[in-house]
């Protein structure tokens, strides 16, 4: 596997990150006791009982960070979409570049989630005795400071990279399951000929009536004139700025027929319209995988590259039927 498609399925279920958040909070709590036990002991004694201390730990620290978790998941997902990151190459340099790309996001994310987290913390910790004076003095003035930002930064970076890499691991493990179907070549088998009776004229006539004739070549335009291309060699048809093209081992050529006409004329045993802008040759299908929000990615293997196309959930049942018919022919 030279590359990994990022489905980001972990980000569609942010509750999966709750365990990571809990571990990080406990980790920082342990570090706090190890580095500064006097301060921690003073804080603990101010709550008088263990229950009060644990209650404040949950309501004042852990619960508000649920908002941080969900906002971080949202920001990481949007960051992927904004940069168009759909796959990464599995090598050291590509992984380092991918990981480093998130540092600016983690540095500025504090200003996006902290106003929400701060107010949630105030509402939970001060309930039911809310005080405007305490809100301004302890939360606003002491919250929006450089010290608070620097205190939050290690937590945010650690949480962010745990989410990023957990999603990577999840995508890697899922890349080998049945959602990504690799098309294997058909193994030649020995053909057994069974003698049959010649069909009667009536059956011959019925067979001729039912048999459909599909074109074997298509006319394409070049700079020097027209050329006829074998359809079984064509990788796919596409539309671009209201023009129609066919991609062939010899290159990309313009065709005059729109995809709606080609969809009706081409042999459905070999060609399928996966998108309003694409008709693919199923013989050149490399693989397909579930993407997100009911969409799939279809990969067509050409001589120069593996072309990536989107396919909607509505087309998927017909696609599976067409693929099954193509592979069983």
Automatic annotation (TrEMBL):
Gene3D superfamilies: LytTr DNA-binding domain (2.40.50.1020). Keywords: Membrane, Transmembrane, Transmembrane helix. The chain crosses the membrane at residues 18-36, 56-79, 100-124, 144-164. One of its GO terms (molecular function) is DNA binding. Residues 218-325 form the HTH LytTR-type domain. It comes from the Bacteria. Coiled coil: none annotated. This is HTH LytTR-type domain-containing protein. It comes from Runella rosea.
